[in-house]
Amino acid sequence: MVKIRTFRGICPPPQYAEEVASRPYDVLNSAEAKQEAGEKSLLHIIKPEIDFDPIADEHLEEVYDKGVENFRRWLGRGWLVQDGKPMYYIYAQTMEGRTQYGLAVCCHYEDYLDGRIKKHELTRPDKEEDRMIHVRNQKANIEPVFFSYPAVDEIDGIVAGITESTPPHFEFTAADGFGHSFWKITDDAVNERITALFGEVPAFYVADGHHRTAAAARVGQELAAANPAHTGDEEYCYFLAVVFPDNQLKIIDYNRVVRDLNGLTKEQFLAALEKNFTVEPKEGTYKPDALHTFGVYTDGQWYALRAKEGTYDDGDPIGVLDVTILSNLVLDEILGIKDLRRDKRIDFVGGIRGLGELERRVDSGEMAVAFALYPVSMHQLIDIADTGNIMPPKTTWFEPKLRSGVVIHSFDE
């Protein structure tokens, strides 16, 4: 069962919340972050290379030091303030009329090492190391990770009771139109009940933030090893997550674009597809509406693909995924793309950008073909994590992203 606890969160005062809260570090490149960052933006802390002119290499020691300096400055100026007692927090996000309610909690690093916090993606050592340096230097989890858990009716009821009867501590609508609302749970008895209820939850599932999760767990492990008096209850043993019930989350499609047809003409490519798929030209755009269906856009035309019976294994949690079917039967077999992580001929487009972005990439001549996929379900994600499997690269896209700076966890004791 998972172990969580309350913490003294560091939050922006309500009047600064919208200015401080930022998009996560990994959805913006440095130039975009520099352009987007206002005076109070957390981007100065999570992407401190933007404070150099010209923009510095994000891995330089002076850049990491600048992040620490900025964090201390934000605290000193009152743009971030630490609460006086430990508690949990509710963080709600609204997108296109749908709201999901998460709890900001502190998770124990041993749950990650022991497999009670389950992952579904591989991590890159260089990205882990970069985030580790930030966590180690800041002595804080500046950005939360995004977890899911099997929904618990009583937890849902507690959250609903608070959010329906109490105005949020702050709320704002970001530039992308997504709403963000934040409550502090100050009642000690309610916090104790939440802790007890999560003590019966068998596992958390990493939805977004695999590198940050791995980095935070490794820092906790590192500090534990360096402390002869380590008990396992120190603040550094815990890291920040916002946990959402699985029945409130929606995974968005994660699509693919490819630069060329591997020497084939359009007609040869379409003919090759017919070995494993039914191929149907469509009027206008085509968005897949069921598992094992795909949209293909090339030369100004959309086609609907449906995988034929016998081309996938329903009993294999990885083999049954549409990304696996597409990778094996199209990207590899027809287009010769065998390594999705390294092949420069392929790129990935989050479904939040719409089918128009796929058309634009092809119509511009940059890409030859685009593939629209039906999104993975939470059931599939949990099944893969529970069986110890790893999803293919670029399979899940969760939206909206957590805003960084809504709440921070410090272990600077």
Quick synopsis:
By secondary structure, the chain is of the alpha+beta class.
Provide the descriptors you would attach to this structure in a database record:
9-stranded mixed beta sheet; 31% helix; alpha+beta; 6-stranded antiparallel beta sheet; 413 residues; globular
Structural class: alpha+beta
Give the N-to-C terminal Cα separation: 27 Å
What's the overall geometry?
A: globular
Beta-strand proportion: 15-25%
- Our Rg estimate from Cα atoms comes to 23 Å
Low-confidence stretches: none
Largest sheet: 9 strands, mixed
Instruction: Tell me the total number of β-strands.
Output: 21
Specify the helix fraction band.
Answer: 25-40%
Give average pLDDT, whole number: 95
Please tally the helical runs, counting DSSP H or I stretches of 4 or more residues.
Answer: 13
Describe the fold and architecture.
The structure is a single chain. This protein is of the alpha+beta class. It has 13 helices and 21 strands. It has helices spanning 17-20, 30-36, 43-46, 61-76, 109-113, 125-138, 153-165, 188-198, 210-226, 266-273, 322-332, 354-363, 378-386; strands spanning 4-5, 10-11, 81-82, 88-95, 98-108, 117-118, 140-141, 145-149, 170-173, 179-185, 204-208, 238-245, 251-252, 254-258, 277-282, 293-298, 301-307, 346-350, 369-373, 397-398, 409-410. Strand 4 and strand 5 (98-108) form a beta hairpin. The mean pLDDT is 95.
Layout of helices and strands:
Elements: E1 4-5, E2 10-11, H1 17-20, H2 30-36, H3 43-46, H4 61-76, E3 81-82, E4 88-95, E5 98-108, H5 109-113, E6 117-118, H6 125-138, E7 140-141, E8 145-149, H7 153-165, E9 170-173, E10 179-185, H8 188-198, E11 204-208, H9 210-226, E12 238-245, E13 251-252, E14 254-258, H10 266-273, E15 277-282, E16 293-298, E17 301-307, H11 322-332, E18 346-350, H12 354-363, E19 369-373, H13 378-386, E20 397-398, E21 409-410
Parallel strand pairs: 6-11, 8-12
Antiparallel strand pairs: 1-5, 2-3, 4-5, 4-10, 5-12, 7-21, 8-11, 9-10, 13-20, 14-18, 14-19, 15-17, 16-17, 16-19
